[in-house]
TrEMBL record:
InterPro entries: Transf_Hexapept/Carb_Anhydrase, Trimer_LpxA-like_sf
Record-linked SUPFAM superfamilies: Trimeric LpxA-like enzymes
Domain of life assignment: Eukaryota
Naturally occurring in which organism (per UniProt): Euplotes harpa
Signal peptide: none
Gene3D superfamilies the record matches: Hexapeptide repeat proteins
Name of the featured protein: Uncharacterized protein
Length: 145
């Protein structure tokens, strides 16, 4: 039969110097020192740096002109400014600039605007893309297109 030791004997066993030495050697394998001052310094929650990496706003209102968009994908690095209407299921990819600051820009449903594209307007003509239109990469679309 196996006889269990009382808990006070177990506590005494865990506090023994031999067991402390074994626990210390086993713990050193996981605690890799870097040799700097940060080895002995810990930070609390109020001292940690918690700012976001990017504060870029991709849909920006300009005066009373606001972008209107629904169920679509707009990349975090894209910029949509002013009176821009993006229909459902349209995609706006990386580094795209859509300027609706002078006149209305309409992006049709199921349209895709590729990387590094710039769409601009003038006061006399609105700019728009028809439904299911694909704009490639590195394209500039002026108002007379």
């Amino acid at each position: 039969t196996i006889k269990m030791l009382p808990s006070k004997y177990l506590r005494r066993l865990f506090k023994s110097s031999m067991l402390k030495a074994v626990r210390g050697e086993a713990g050193r394998g996981y605690n890799l020192p870097t040799g700097g001052i940060t080895d002995s310094v810990t930070s609390t929650k109020d001292l940690t740096y918690t700012d976001e990496l990017s504060k870029h706003r991709n849909c920006i209102s300009l005066y009373d002109l606001t972008p209107h968009y629904e169920e679509n994908y707009i990349s975090e690095t894209a910029t949509v400014v002013g009176e821009v209407q993006i229909e459902p299921w349209a995609t706006i990819w990386n580094n795209v600039v859509i300027r609706g600051d002078i006149n209305l820009v309409v992006i049709g449903p199921y349209s895709s605007v590729g990387d590094n594209t710039v769409i601009q307007t003038v006061a006399s003509l609105p700019t728009g893309l028809p439904a299911k239109c694909f704009i490639g990469m590195n394209v500039t679309i002026h108002s007379d297109c």
